[in-house]
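Marked as duplicate of an earlier ticket. Keeping the data here for the record.
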Amino acid sequence: MQFLLLVFIFLLAVIILYMGVFTIALDKLGLSTHSAMLLLACTLIGSGINLPLFQITADAPPDEEIQSLQGLLFGRPLPFTGKTIVAINVGGALIPIGFSIYLASHNPLEFTRILLAIAIVAAVSYFASRPVRGLGIGMPVFVAPITAALTALLIAPDSSAPLAYICGTLGVLVGADLLRLNDIRKIGTPVASIGGAGTFDGIFLTGIVAVLLA
């Protein structure tokens, strides 16, 4: 009983710390605590929603036991039939894209600098990411946020926080997802989600850590 209580206290402390760090990061972006919590809630809820886009032929999976999809639009694990449904994740792609557009329009950032920063992070993310059969696209967690923070500080030191979020999240989406679409055929999964599965944590953490470092 005492062990369970300690575990509960530990998890509660982690959640409080996690939310505190998230709030601090978004405060640097000019968001209120209420707005930060709303964005966090929408992101976490949206991470379970995958919207199907199109379907492609793919190689057979190495192990049927690991073939499953988490998402509200796909309520049960889907069997692999030689084709992969390419979907887009709400919390890992659509919300970061929308928030990045908001930041770009509310901060003094030149469009060319934003594109350059995104291109740099996308290139690093592409070469650092790898297709993982049966799972998705994986990459080291801290490569993208460190790259995004350094890029933002070099390109726009006066607006490094918003640029770090923009180039960090969009750079990972472009480099580890969009540029890896052809590799999806080799993964052997019934569904591949842009901004979901293996890259959601990378995109989410990249935005937060990059802002904190910038």
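See parent ticket for discussion. The helical segments are 2-27, 33-46, 90-105, 111-128, 143-155, 160-177, 200-213.
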